[in-house]
Amino acid sequence: MVKNILIIGGSYFAGRSFVEHLRKEKDVKIFTFNRGNIPLKMKEVTELHGDRTDIDSIKKIPLMDWDVLIDFCAYTPDDIKKVIQFVPGKIKQYIFISTTSVYDHSSILPFDENTKTVSTPQPELGEYAEYGLDKINAEKYLEKACSEKSISWTILRPASIYGKFNYAPREEYFFDLIEKNETIIIPENDLALFTFIFVEDFAKIILHCMENQQVYNQIFNVVSPEYFSYKKYIETLEIATGKNIQTRQKSVANIIEERIPLPFPIDEHQIYSGYKLDRVLDFSYTPLSAGLKKTYAFYKFLKKMNRGQ
């Protein structure tokens, strides 16, 4: 039986990776709904263009029963509200891609799904001060609205996602410095630990969650079990790139003062537990060294393509 899958977003990074994996599945009809700024141009995908904040755009989505709706780009309760109220047809399962940024500061590590979430803006994040708060409020609205409409829901909170098409300046920051043979600054304090999820693993996990009753009406962190400090991350980069990387340590105060744009925490842990999801899926994660190797190869491919233009 053919399944109708509607993806809100789906044209870049995690959404694109998911579509690339989903298109290999049999008996699915894939629809993406986004502004069309980055066309997918995949024969297996019907691309619907519109603005999710505009009710009239949403109403133009085809009327049908949606076996699964995956929402990659909802940031506020209103984003969720418009989809649930105005997408034509019945939604059977709503998978919402949230974030681990919903968690408040805590000394109890790693953060699991029971960790306290933020209840106020986070001014230390500057322009992103409302991000975590908006996401947790969107989660709460989703739970309530889906319950009222008998829609099964699943909330996924990924840790820092890395991989090809990443628009956040994370691994690319290091790749650029490596290609220029420049010294990489790292914190003197090597106790700040952080965790990741490879974008391809994330895509496969979403696939495993589709129509999986074991994940209905539940929240899950999505994170690889590996922990990394800056020193260990650089060592892993050396394995992935085959390069000898020169580093220099600086104090946290100096890094902040000099505005060195390190992409991961420099003075606090940012580690999460994926144990709850692992008990359900028994998933084998890609080691960071292997994921970074693939990401670096794609980075070099894009650089070569850009030079050829």
Describe this structure in words.
Helix content is 35%, strand content 17%. The chain is built from 10 helices and 11 strands. It has helices spanning 13-22, 55-59, 77-86, 131-148, 171-179, 199-209, 230-241, 252-257, 275-281, 288-308, and strands at 3-8, 28-34, 45-49, 68-71, 93-97, 152-158, 160-162, 184-187, 196-198, 218-222, 247-250. The strands form 3 sheets. A 7-stranded parallel β-sheet has the order 3-2-1-4-5-6-10, with helices on both faces. Helix 4 links the parallel strand 5 and strand 6 (152-158). Helix 1 packs across helix 6. The radius of gyration is 20 Å and the shape is globular. The N and C termini lie far apart (45 Å). The model has no long low-confidence stretch (mean pLDDT 95).
Tags for this entry?
two-stranded parallel sheet; seven-stranded parallel beta sheet; 10 helices; Rossmann fold; 309 residues; alpha/beta
Helix content: 25-40%
CATH superfamily of the domain at 3-163 and 195-225 and 270-286: NAD(P)-binding Rossmann-like Domain
The CATH topology of the domain at 3-163 and 195-225 and 270-286 is Rossmann fold
Strand content is 15-25%
User: Radius of gyration over alpha carbons?
Assistant: 20 Å
CATH class category name of the domain at 3-163 and 195-225 and 270-286: Alpha Beta
Identify the CATH architecture of the domain at 3-163 and 195-225 and 270-286: 3-Layer(aba) Sandwich
SSE order: EHEEHEHEHEEHEEHEHEHHH
Oligomer: single chain
Q: What sort of overall outline do the alpha carbons produce when their principal axes are compared?
A: globular
Helix-and-strand structural type: alpha/beta
Uncertain segments are none
